[in-house]
C-alpha cells in the first residue's frame, strides 16, 4: 500500500520534473507560459538561500549551517526578482525559516 503524503499533497511530474504538489506543478506551467508570452524574463526552480544559526548548549556555542530552498525565483523585465513558495500548509519550521531569510537577505517571500 502506498504511503499517503503527510499534508495530503499529490506528487506530480511535468516535463520529467517531479513536483511536491499539484499546486506547485501548476505554477511551473504558469511561469513557462509567462516566459513564452514575454511577461517575465526568466524563472528558476528551487533557489537556495544558505544561512547559519548559532546556539549555546552545555556551556558551548555551536554554529549550524542551513539552507532554505524556495520553489521559484522569477525575474522581471525591469530587473526585479521575486521569490515564490507554493504552500498548502505553513509549518512552524517554514515560518521560522521564512523570517530568517527575509531579514538576512532583505527579500520578501511571496506565498501562493
Brief characterization of the structure:
With 112 residues, the chain is an alpha+beta fold.
Structure description:
- This protein is an alpha+beta fold and 112 residues long.
- It is built from two helices and eight strands.
- It has helices spanning 22-36, 92-105, and strands spanning 12-14, 17-19, 42-45, 48-57, 60-69, 72-75, 81-85, 109-111.
- The strands form three sheets. A four-stranded mixed β-sheet has the order 3-6-7-8, covered by helices on one side. Strands 1-2 form a two-stranded antiparallel sheet.
- Strand 1 (12-14) and strand 2 (17-19) form a beta hairpin.
- The chain is globular.
- The mean pLDDT is 92.
Architecture blueprint of SSEs:
Layout: E1 12-14, E2 17-19, H1 22-36, E3 42-45, E4 48-57, E5 60-69, E6 72-75, E7 81-85, H2 92-105, E8 109-111
Parallel strand pairs: 7-8
Antiparallel strand pairs: 1-2, 3-6, 4-5, 6-7
- Amount of beta strand: 35-45%
Order of strands in the sheet with most strands: 3-6-7-8
Secondary structural class: alpha+beta
What is the count of helical runs? Answer: 2
| Average pLDDT reading | 92
Number of strands: 8
Biggest sheet features:
4 strands, mixed
Encode the helix/strand succession as letters: EEHEEEEEHE
Report helical residue fraction: 25-40%
Nearest-angstrom radius of gyration?
A: 17 Å
**What general form does the structure show?**
globular
Estimate nothing, just give the exact number of structural domains.
1
Q: Which spans of ≥5 residues are poorly predicted at pLDDT below 50? A: none
* Separation, N- and C-terminal Cα atoms: 31 Å
